[in-house]
Amino acid sequence: MRKFRWLILGVWLAILIGAIGVIINTKFESTLSEFLPKSPSAQQELLNEQLRNGVLSRKILVAINGGDAAARARISARMALDLRKNSQFKFVSNGNAGVNSKIYNYLFAHRYLLSAATKPELFSVKGLHDAIEKTLNDLATPGGEAMLALFPSDPTGAMIGMAKGMRGMAKPRVLDGVWVSSTGDSALLVLQTRFPGSDSDAQQQAIATIKKIFRLAQRDMGSSGQNTRLQLTGVGVISVAARDTIIHAAELMSLISGTLIIMLLLFVYRSLAVLAFSLVPVMSGVIVGIAAVSLGFGVVYDITLGFGTALIGEAVDYSIYFFVQAGEMAAGAELWSKKYWPIIRLGVFTSVAGFASLLFSNLPGLAQLGLYAIAGLLTAAGVTRFVLPSLPLHHFKRRDFERMGGILVDIMRMLSSARWVVISLTVIASGILVVHRDHIWSHELSALSPVPKADQLLYAKLRKDMGIPDAGYLLVVSGPTRNRALEKASKIDPLLEQLQVSGIIGGFQTPTRFLPGVESQVERISALPPKKILTARLAEALRGLPVSASRLSPFVQAVERERRLPPLTYAELPTGIRQIVDSMLVHQGQEWSVLLPVMAPSSGKINPEAVQAVMRQHHVDDVMFVDISGATNTLYSGYIRNALKLSLTGVLGIIILLLVVFRSVIRVVRIMLPLIAAVLSVAAGFVVMGIELNILNLIGLMLIVAVGSNYALFFDRSGQMNGEGSSRTLVSLVVANLATLIGFAPLAFSGVPVLQAIGATVAPGVVLALLFSASLAERRTVIIEQTL
Amino acid sequence: MSIERAQPESPVAVTAPGINILFLRSLLLRRIFYLPRRYAIGAVLAFFIGGSMLTQAASAADWNITELMHMLAQVKSSHASFVETKHIGFLDKPIQSSGNMRFVAPDTLEMHTVKPRDQVMLVQGDVLTMDKYTIQLDDHPELLAFVDSIRGVLTGNTELLETHFMLSLKGNKNSWTLILVPKQNAFAKQIKHIAVSGIGNMVRSIEIVKVNHDWSFISIRNSSTP
């Protein structure tokens, strides 16, 4: 051992320096998609791409609260003015009608090219007669006067038809000339950034700009603006906030658990030098762990770092075992490596077997955690075994743990006689789980989000107020060019209208209302009769109607004008119109896709089979109907199944490992029993409290097994130890357990949902695992203690 | 052949600003529902005043606006049929619609048109619903002002009415006409005056005369089934 000392230290330092070098060049990222699948289907990929870089990801929703309505409206107007001057924003909208009149003029000037009603039949004598009669009936009905001025230039109701088609579109309320929330107590703006939502740095700058402009507007308002507040949300805003929250939580939690663990260790060791040395394995583990993730994945997620704090609690155990269990340092280290190291080694391997299953997770966030944990634990254990004894520890005086050990032995004796409590707890927990078996697992994908619930709710609320459709249903058609994709969408429009009339869908949006495919436009143009023919037909069509042909000359002129127009193209769209069209178009690889948001009818659900049946009936077969919530639910169920499978594989791996080592089923059962009892009790505890478990709770449960197996192994072996060794082992286990508790418990209060789930599961779980292992330990141990 | 894109060819559509704005909003953001502003105004008026037909207030010695308001305010609920005739400048003949109305105090008003096509309009509190579309009256100051005025009539609040209209009363108790002339506001740009006529405490007709000389006449008959 001694002769390799310098070699060992050299290798250790070289690895650390190399790892630090890797970390310096590592990209740290917070993408919100850590827990989205890494190999999604074509549909899912499209949606992920939209989420990361699509138009929706670029939208920032702004709410101005507080003050009075007039003050909010003035601040909104002022902010819109200033934001429009800023190059970070592609467009800024707060409800001012300027854009709307542009859109109105565009639609009005091209109404026959844009209206799906433009067909040869409409311009026949009968078609004209029926259409004009219908418009007259609309005029006669109360309220019809509003359409009066349009009648001479649009007697067939092309504009009204288009307006009706768009009634499912966004409809924020307007108060004092600006958009407001449905309750009217906040003014709303919608901004679109030039940079995608996944570019957190650019988003952060944009957020800072908005805040600055709000403060300026507020200041200029004087006293009336004083009580107003700004609220921002959007994919980018949430990403930035999540990143900040995670970094903040990780820092705070590291600080809290770090301080507590150091206090605990100081209390136990009563020596700063021992404390410093005991942190060597942990720090080495963290450094090598991060470097391993960086090498394995190319990027390190911020959330992975968040778990680093938790790992400190687990890896610090090894040095605790070393320092507490080893006797006098010089001789103790040698003795320790003979007597205790095999147990710890087995404990490390059981933990690694547990974490290894995470490596195969289809959630990149979990796979990173698995690699981080494995690399970190192996390093920490290796450093404890080989580096710590090589360090100059001679002048340390070991603290006497006899008294503490004695107390713990007494407690253990009590626990041992209370083993019926453990048995009945396990039975009760199993009973609870069986009774609630349908409500154990949460089916909400949001549980996986690192975004706090409040942020998710604000986003959902403002989206609803702005009329931005929920991720409900999408119809996707694709083509090799933009025009081909639009042309396909134009062909689907009438089918969707049919579905809307029959109540299968509530409504839909389509870019073809603003830019139909060229082919459709050419068809419509050819349906428009030349002036002479139209005049003749009109005269005949008006027979029996209370209007004379001379009144409708604006109509005849409009038809003639549009008949001579070339088809509209994307390039000449006015900006406001182009935004609308762009928001429903995706260019990916070689393909253009049109995404048509489809609204559910009042029942709240769309039957996808009914939609697909209509599509098939009309021989439209290359349309993809995506039920986004359904797709994510299916996806989530897939994750849960996958994670369950992985966790069970992990537990199975641990059992097989133990079987191979011990070659005794009874011994393995005795080791696993307290761990399974702890897992069942924690799961039942959650169920009783009405909390549904998600994937991260599941991972936490597996961590209980991985960490708890160390305790169980020590109790298994302590039967073969003498009194002093046994009580010292107990002390080391309790200290290690406390350290793990301190490492995980603060996560439960971190405010980041994913971290909370793990913390709240592992912290109580490891305590139970220790207590249960102690009380279920072989009676022989207790007998030995008693004979002393 | 020269082609100018986005050049509105019809001066009517673009120069009629009220209609234009109505359409802009309805097309893009508000849906078609924003359209029935004027109609709603007429209908609301017709209905609230029509409701007074069931009121059987005792006759008083003095006949003036205060007395009329007092009588009309007694209405708790009513049911009536209506026929509206619209006289529109560019049409050779007037066009007609008809249906039923229902009022329940304090603020529910329903107008169900049967001819020429089926349509249901409902005002309940500050919400106006037409077929399945909804608008908030708060978002439409003109409409809200009007509804408030009608509520002024129903509650006998002459003061509230006078913030929006100049009132004058003609005739006697057995045949009266209340004339409402809008004060200078957006409403006044469209409506010249509204004349409500009645016999005793029953409203029999509402005449709405527009600034462009179009006019409509709503005749109201007490329904046999209240």
Textual characterization of the structure:
The complex is a heterodimer of chains A (788) and B (226). Chain A has 788 residues and is α+β, with helices and mostly antiparallel strands. Chain A contains 29 helices and 13 strands. In chain A, strands 9, 10, 11, 12 and 13 form a five-stranded antiparallel beta sheet that branches. Residues 780-788 of chain A have low confidence and may be disordered. With 226 residues, chain B is α+β, with helices and mostly antiparallel strands. Chain B is 27% helix and 38% strand. An eleven-stranded antiparallel beta sheet of chain B has the order 6-5-4-3-2-1-11-10-9-8-7, with helices on one face. In chain B, strand 5 (127-130) and strand 6 form a beta hairpin. The N and C termini of chain B lie far apart (64 Å). Residues 1-61 of chain B have low confidence and may be disordered. The interface between A and B is large, with 60 and 60 residues.
Number of helices of chain A: 29
Strand count, sense and closure of the main sheet of chain A?
Answer: 5 strands, antiparallel
Spatial order of strands in the largest sheet of chain B: 6-5-4-3-2-1-11-10-9-8-7
Gyration radius of chain A, to the nearest Å?
35 Å
Strand content of chain B: 35-45%
Binned, the helix content of chain A reads 55-70%
Number of strands of chain A: 13
What is the percentage of strand-forming residues of chain A? 5-15%
> Most extensive interface, residues per chain?
A-B, 60 and 60 residues
